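Extended Data, record magnesium chelatase
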Amino acid sequence: MADDGLLDKVHALSDLELALLLCLISREHCLVSTPSDAIDDLMQELQLIATKTFGLTWVVIDCTPSTTLEDFASALLLGNAASPSSHSPTASRHPDSYFTSRPSTSHPRTPLSPLTPSGAFASRIANVVFAKNLDRAPQAVQIQALELLRTRRIFTRTSVQTAPKQFVFIPVLEAASGGEARVTAHLNDFLYIAYWHNPEDGFVNLEEADGGNDADTASTASVVKRIPGEETSSDPPLIVESDISYLGTLSKEAQVDVEIIRYQMNVVSFLRMHRAVAGGISPTATKHFGQLMRCLAALHRLDFVTPALVGLAARKVYLHRVQLTPPEKERSMQWGSRLEAVEALLEDIGPEDVIEDVLGMVTAPV
């Protein structure tokens, strides 16, 4: 069905790389989270993935409660790049480096091209935007982000900037679990999938980069100073745009049997009716659910969707969407349930538990 060499490369990707690949295939956006003590490593890993795995330009927006609309809009653009060697993803892990990174925005090195005369960036939006701690930004900034995703353009002080064909917006949040990571409601619903990264799973690209940097430092015989990020920009990316387009075509051709559609709709219905759920099971989520099922089929060398892929898609699509009901509003309270009993029932239940509960209740087609 598909090119075996390409799918072998896909199957060798890490979970973080697969999350970004799924977004590129579907032309959607995702939410990534991790515990607070690992967020800096996660940011560096994501930057390396964008550069090494997909060959894409990226920027980092470090959001705070004082971030303004103008700050957000200007940080999206590659045109304000500072010193080309000051934005290595591994720089902050090596404090003795001569190079430091800017605190609010970061830009990658981009090789010279006819589109960037004299090495200067044309003013344009990066392919990948990492919005660190977007949940801390004012609601107006988060709504501006939603407008960017919906229209694929943003107004700056002097111009209108259009997002590139390959464009992914990734809020990167601090959260103890995947179900706790959220942004403002409408933006949250617009995001395709969510992924919570366990630091114990490691940071593959970052560890490889650190190993290379350590080897360079240990070599006292060498007098050539390698610029941070130089080796990643010269190597061809693992997955190129034509590969992504090919996988996108395969996903659109994946067949979904009527029994699978019934199973999918049953999962949606059971999620909506679950006693712990207050909302979040939206029509947009159902659309994303169907998209992701087909994408996963293509990545698994299948031209049809299986029940197992439905379950996998549900875990990714609804992780950040499921809104839990407070005990006093749980529906059985209308018929005389005791508040203490309901509180005990709902204690320690998170979105992950709700999704697993529903997948256990709904009978999959044989």
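Summary. The beta strands are 30-34, 58-62, 105-106, 128-132, 153-155, 160-162, 168-174, 193-196, 277-279, 323-324.
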